[in-house]
Amino acid sequence: MLAAMLLLSPGAWAQERFITLASTTSTEQSGLFGHLLPLFKAETGIDVRVVAVGTGQALKLGERGDADALLVHDRAGEDKFVAEGFGIDRRDVMYNDFVVVGPAADPAGIKGRGVAEAFGRIAAAKAPFASRGDDSGTHRSELRIWKTAGVDVKAAGAGWYRELGSGMGPTLNTAAGMNAHALADRGTWASFKNRQALTILVEGDKTLFNPYGSILVNPARHAGVKAADAAAWHRWLTGPKGQAAIAGFKIGGEQLFFPDAR
Amino acid sequence: MTAEMDSILPLELDGVGFAVGGRTLLSGVSLRLEAGSRTIVLGPNGAGKSLLLRLCHGLLEPTEGRLRWDGGVGQPLPGAVVRRRQAMVFQRPVLLRRSALDNIRYVLGLMGMPRHRRREVALEALDRFGLAGLAGRPARVLSGGEQQRLALARAWVVEPDILFLDEPTSALDPASTLAVELAIQDFHVAGTKIVMTTHDLGQARRLADEVVFLSHGRLVEASPAARFFKGPASGQARAFLDGELVC
Amino acid sequence: MHDLAAALSTALALVTAFDPLMLDIVRLSVLVSGAAVLIAAVIGLPLGAVLALTAFPGRGVLVVLLNAFMGLPPVVVGLAVYLLLSRAGPLGEMGLLFTPTAMVMAQTVLVLPIVAALSRQVVADLWEEYGEQLRSLGASRPNVVMTLLWDGRFSLLTAVLAGFGRASAEVGAVMIVGGNISGVTRTMTTAIALETSKGDLPLALGLGLILIGLVTAVNAAVFLVGQAARRRMG
What we know:
The structure holds 3 protein chains of 3 kinds.
Chain A: H1 2-8, H2 10-13, E1 18-24, H3 25-30, H4 32-44, E2 47-53, H5 55-63, E3 69-72, H6 75-83, E4 87-103, H7 115-125, E5 129-131, H8 137-149, H9 153-156, E6 161-163, H10 168-178, E7 181-185, H11 186-191, E8 198-202, E9 209-217, H12 227-238, H13 240-247, E10 250-251, E11 254-255, E12 258-259
Parallel strand pairs in A: 1-2, 1-3, 5-6, 5-7
Antiparallel strand pairs in A: 3-9, 4-7, 4-8, 4-9, 4-12, 10-11
Helix pairs in contact in A: 7-8, 12-13
Chain B: E1 11-20, E2 23-33, E3 38-42, H1 49-57, E4 64-69, H2 79-84, E5 86-89, H3 100-110, H4 115-128, H5 144-156, E6 162-166, H6 174-189, E7 193-197, H7 201-207, E8 210-215, E9 218-224, H8 225-230, H9 235-243
Chain C: H1 2-17, H2 20-53, H3 59-69, H4 74-85, H5 100-136, H6 141-151, H7 153-169, H8 172-178, H9 188-197, H10 201-233
């Protein structure tokens, strides 16, 4: 039994150098890591193991010391994480943007409008809307837009506003299934294959800006954190090579993430 | 004291009874079973014959009265000693899902025989009961008669002082029945006390040295076989012998 | 119908291509679930037998709990094992979180009640048949346990298979304690969940078909071996 366990622990096969990165499903599902990590590994020999969860859960993993570094997108949550001493050295990495997807027939008539106005029209038409409902970075952004639009979804959402409590992909699957609107990050949408009748209806509004930050988990809080290797990743990602690699990641010729480290 | 003892017998039953769930199935049985002789337990269905065997063998504890293995040493023998020197063959033998040979080896293992000797002893026992050719066959696919002989071979290696048999031939054809009776004879010649129940009066006449007759959970009479079959003391036994219609 | 056909052809393409990534995922799934079932059997079979054969105060409660735990929610088990192995948890220093070992631990917890509860039933039934004979032969308690487990081996194999089915099909526990890390802790089920999230339904379903095929193959192999052995042993 012990032998079986040893056999299965990856460390027993090779003394591999790796760090654990907690990141978001949207980043993982866009395919960005498949592009970045081999480049980083080739340069440093460090393997980055990505645990992809919602931003809220990623921050929680960092709090408990179960990850060595984070790559997430919720500025308010990130700042709180650092302020409370769980993380250090938050840096801007890149941004992408959100898009509002919905039925190509555009029943609420929102195509090409500003996002706040579009949300107002969706509410007025009581057109179906699929919300992540999982306290993720995307969900938090969506709630801010409803607020700007002056719509109280809790009070007025009955019958058309659905909180799914799921990740980005599952939410899009559900939205496609019930022909509903949804707020999605461009990366996930670009690589999403089960679109059915959905298409992008609103994009380019500056409120849809979606910045990502890289944070190191504070090694002073947890003994096991691999501070040196995590810092190497952190510096690489926000340095010229990492930034160039981010800019070079394209799906169907389209750039999905825009580096913005200073 | 136990090592040089010839036999754990005699077995003395003193007012032995058994009740379960408020129903008395056997009561007030006082009886002395001596070494050497073949005792056949007779009686109609439900008389408590099988129950008596199980109580004697120690599979059940009496709810009244007591049993005493004497060993001729004047004081009761401890249970662990008694247990190892008796064996029982059931109406339907329970054989393990392994070969005939391994069924015997299993018992030898339980007895603590050194591993290297078991095979030889087991083969010898199989041979004695005409099963040498079936040693490697799975016990569960043997015929009913072969299974019962295997059960007897399994009992044989125990070298018991006393062998209980609970209707060992009731499910067998005449040829197999004969083989079992011959096997019982072997045990008898080797000095093993036989205590057996049967419904077959012919078989009882052939084998019995003494008869214990039960009816309705009570001991009606215990007499030498010759006397019992010539003229039983009790009316119930007489009726049983005449027409087997006692209830 | 069209989706199913697409899934089927995707599955076929995946299998015939012997994609190394794919093979890694399949191998990890089998290794993790296999190890969990092995450990659960080593503990669960004797445990079930002892529960069937010994009377002690509280046994009834234990049996009810065991039966109820056959339906433990994988997510809850995953969460419990996560809290145990987290660096902030009691076993955090072992560094097992997000490793296959952690996945084996979680699945062992899931499978153990199934193996133990079903073994208890099998052994209890066998004891009905064997009890008098074994007591007559003077078998000791440990001996009885071993004998009944061996003689019940064909039925017990079914219990173990049920455990394997449960382990290889669950996603909730391995997702949480394994983290679905590509190339390290990605199994068939977490890969299926991921591909579903990406909306690549044919690929997800294709992987699902391979998983079903795998579990069916394992069951068929055991069934055939069991049949042959049962015919031989009676």
